[in-house]
Amino acid sequence: MDTKLTLSLNKSVIEKAKKYAKSKNISLSKMIESYLAAVTEKEEKEKQTTPLVESLIGVINLEADFDYKKGYGDYLVKKYQ
Q1: Through-space distance between the first and last CA atoms of the chain, rounded to whole angstroms
Q2: Four-residue CA torsion sign, 3, 8, 13, 16
Q3: Cβ(21)–Cβ(31) under 8 Å?
Q4: Helix (H, G, I), strand (E, B) or coil at 25
Q5: CA nearest 13: which of 28, 34, 30?
Q6: Is the pTM here over 0.90, yes or no?
Q7: Name one Pfam family in it (predicted).
Q8: Chain mean position to CA 42
């Protein structure tokens, strides 16, 4: 079910958005709806963690500048020498 939403935006932003939507052959409403759906879906996916992962969060304390790629690379070099 579609519901009306009123937004207050900068006039130049609206004009640019209208031109962009027209060039993509979609309505401005559909463009905004797609954007909002993508943003909220991404956030929901980021929040989805399993109970196992939740229990492991914070188990290891690493330095702020820890480079896991370098550390793993060093491990692989040693393993396959």
Answers
A1: 62
A2: positive
A3: yes
A4: coil
A5: 28
A6: no
A7: DUF6364
A8: 5
Domain residue spans of the chain? 11-79
Cα-atom radius of gyration of the chain, to the nearest Å? 23
Contact in structure between 28 and 20 (CB atoms under 8 Å): no
State how far the Cα of 62 lies from the Cα of 65, in Å rounded to an integer. 8
Compute the distance between CA of residue 11 and CA of residue 30 in angstroms, rounded to an integer.
19
Q: How far is CA 39 from the centre of its chain?
A: 7
Residue pLDDT, tens place only, 6-34: 999 999 999 999 999 999 999 999 999 99
Q: Which two tokens stand for residue 21?
A: 């939507």
What is the token pair recorded at 43? 């956030």
* Euclidean distance between CA atoms 29 and 35, whole angstroms: 10
